[in-house]
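Dear colleagues,

As part of the handover before I leave the project, I'm documenting each prediction I ran so the next person doesn't have to rerun anything. This entry is a single chain, and its sequence is reproduced below.
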Amino acid sequence: MRSALLFALCLAMAGGPARGADPAPSWPSLAAQIREAGVRPESALARFIAANQEFQLLRPEERADTLRIPPWLRVNWRKGHPDDGGYPFVLKEVWEWMLAHPDLEPGPPPADHPPGRTAATGTDHRISGLQTSPRNESDIRIDFRNPRRIIAASNDVQASGRQGIYYTGDGGANWGQTSLPLQSIDVFHSDPTIDWTSDGTAWSTTIGISFPGGFTTLMMRAYKSTDGGAHWTFDSTFSGTQTAADKQMVWVDHSDTSPYKDNIYAIWHERAPVYMNRRTGGAWQTPVQVSGAETTSTGIGADVKTNADGFVFGFWHDKGSGKIFFIKSGNGGVSYSTPVAIGTAVSFLNIGVPSDNGRRALVYVSADTYKTATRNLVYAAWTDLTGVAGCNAIANEPGANAASTCKTRIWFSRSTDGGATWLPPVMVNDSPAQNDQYNQALSVDPTSGIVGVVYHDTVADPTRKKTDLYYQSSLDDGATWSAPQKVTTVATDETISGAHAGNQYGDYNGLSGYAGKFFPSWTDRRANLREEIWTSEIDDGPGLDYYTLTPCRLLDTRNAAGPLGGPALAAMAERTWNVAGVCGLPATARAVSVNVTVVSPSGSGDLRMYPADQATPLATVLNFSTGQTRTNNLTLSLAAAASTFTTQNDASGTVHLILDINGYYR
């Protein structure tokens, strides 16, 4: 790698555009640039800087802008991408990686650690392990087929450069750590994403960053793991021939009722346009441009989700107009609708706030969906200024000024008709305090429709410099929100000495919800240690008051035939039960706390239980073998209009079911 890159640098110095006249005096001298980078004059990075001094390639106004990318790196980008009018956001990570690796060689891979107990403070768990270099910007996803399996990922730019992977197979009690391998030409990764397909394969995408020919190149890489996240192999480069791909998000179609189940969808921008691609039939297809003239500058901060019927929804923020755009596909991502604006942000790219004035809070979209026979919901959330007088223009942003009356908030819009129309955006939590909120992540629990959102908030610190992670949820399809719940037990301060000033929190957090439990992932620097990735289990089941009952048997199929008795559950069949009034259960109960037992199965399989008015879920309640007796505890939601639920026996033979109740929610 070293000799190839040094040879490429020589080519760049000899074959780049002619220098022409000396740079204008306002550009720093080569010696000053090398001093600012803090590298030895004989280092590979110093030679890289010297090879990129053609400042005539830059626009005159760049001499005085506030973009935190050094001029020599801008020149390098212009030489490699002469038709690009801007700079990818990930160039900040490129600069950071170069400063940490002045030899321009990849760092050694980190040691793998099998799952074990992690450091914890209260309910918070450090899933990345103890770190001596910063980890930030993360994603997390529960395996809907086996909710005890969870994977998360983050950047690790300064050390190995490889995307960090964190995994658990026991619901978060123990976490292991590993990393993605680098492709042969890549020197580091950035922008982590993660998900699962129904066969139990874990998927991760990242930007593979390299310097072929001495020029910075960005390509989208996909990886997969067949052992729960412990080991990873390269899958494909899904950005085609693009060399400036940036800021991707990925999502798997998890729905059993979707004709496109297990399709993997990715969305990103290449230069200004927004692209999407899909993995179907075991292979990635050709990228499709989904933005047009409506997107007047870079379409950044995108997200992609699907609903139960397999419709695909894409979102992005236009840096030029500030508009939040939405698209939809009904054919599995083959083609998409014309983009429609669902909101307009005051800020066009990112926002400086006292707690994050180095990296700056990115304006990006976090979205999700919920679809049943009677509900067809699509949600989107983003960060922006409040929009009130004195806080309704980019120039009003607070920056480092803690006394500023301008504040950032989490904005939210929803569609109740599958994206055909959208309600006006509202603030999720317009606190009267002089605080900032940003780096939101939104997720819908597909078993209940509960909408959860997390974000950084400085509300507990009058200096607006320390952040905590807060969680709120909506039980009424986004119409109203619960009171903010502080998740973190210790605050983080990214403004003090020793903090990762270049990246601070990174650009985003993660959140995943299933079966009443939400797991966020966030950048955490408690006790002023290095930046690490933490999570916490948030229990947000029915969200109602709980009432105990004297333990009582609700049903037993070993008894005589009847509404709550026999016969045994038939093979590969559903059965719906009405338990209102049984064992003192009121008709107003919305969920029950039960013990589930299967007895005498005549074939191996699994059992699913779910509200009678909802689609069959992905997760099972119990797995069993022929002749085996198995039991499990469960909080089971009931249908909204009646105390009914459905069981589905996925076994090849009959099985008896026993259900004992000990409490309920209403």
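The longest strand covers residues 186-196. The mean pLDDT is 92.

All the best with the project,
I.
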